[in-house]
Structures are given as C-alpha cells and as structure tokens.
Amino acid sequence: MSNHSVQTVSTSSDKYKIILAIVAVVAGVAAFYILAKQPTYVRIAALVAGLVVAIVLAWTSDAGREFFAFAKESVRETKKVVWPTRKEAGQITAVVFGFVVVMAMFLWGTDKLLEFLLYDLVLGLKK
C-alpha cells in the first residue's frame, strides 16, 4: 500500500467563499477610510464588521478550517518551547554584544590597514 496522502481539490464554492472573505476585508478597510468624517467608533465598527464577515466566510470553507487548525496547532507547539531564563538571556546577550564589539574592531582595523596600503604605499597619496 502507498503512504502518499491524497489532496482533495477544493470546490468552487470554497474558492468563492475565500474570494468573498478577501472582499469583505477590503470593504472593511475601505469603509474605515471612507467614513473619515464619522465618529471613530463608527469607523472601527465598519472595520470590525468587515473582519468578522471575512472570518465567518473563511471558517466555513475547507481552506479556512485548515488554516485555523494550523494556527491552533502552532499555538500548541509554541507552548512547548522552553524559553531561556532571565539569567541565560542576559548571558547570551552579553556574548552577542561582545562578538559585535570584536567584529567592529576587526573590521575597523582591516579598513585602516587597507587604507594605509592603498593610499600610502600603492598610490603614494599622503593625507
């Protein structure tokens, strides 16, 4: 038996739902700017309404459900990450800072050496 996963082709209604969701987001953003002379809460309500309609439309499509499942799994995986302690983060930051200082000095020295070689020795131009 084959272990290849079969990918289903989304129906045209799912494509239309995604297109309508994008249109709803664009309409919400456009309404926010078109209603510039209205009170702020009206503008925000128009924007939020567009976003809510888009989320509902996306949720009802297969691609939208897969995206939300992926987002949920991503949050679950993020919770499994072991973050460094404050002390470890400080030590890592100090090492990076030290490396940057050493590299800056090295690059400055290399620049001055090349400047000396090129201008003073090769071209004979004294400053």
Describe the protein.
By secondary structure, the protein is mainly α. It folds into two domains: 12-79; 84-127. The chain is 77% helix and 0% strand. It contains four helices and no strands. Helix 1 runs antiparallel to helix 2 and helix 2 crosses helix 3 (62-79). It is elongated, with a radius of gyration of 29 Å. The protein starts with 11 loop residues before the first helix and ends in a 5-residue tail after the last helix. The model has no long low-confidence stretch (mean pLDDT 88).
Taking the sheet with the most strands, its summary is: none
Bin the helical content: over 70%
Order of helices and strands: HHHH
Tally of separate helices: 4
Radius of gyration: 29 Å
Count of DSSP strands = 0
The share of residues in extended strands comes to under 5%
Gross geometry: elongated
Mean pLDDT value: 88
Task: Give the CA-CA distance, first to last residue.
Answer: 78 Å
- Secondary-structure-based class equals mainly alpha
Number of domains: 2
Low-confidence stretches: none
Tags for this entry?
2 domains, single chain, mainly alpha, about 130 residues
Architecture blueprint of SSEs:
Blueprint: H1 12-34, H2 40-59, H3 62-79, H4 86-122
Helix pairs in contact: 1-2, 2-3
In short:
By secondary structure, the chain is mainly α. Helices cover 77% and strands 0% of the residues.
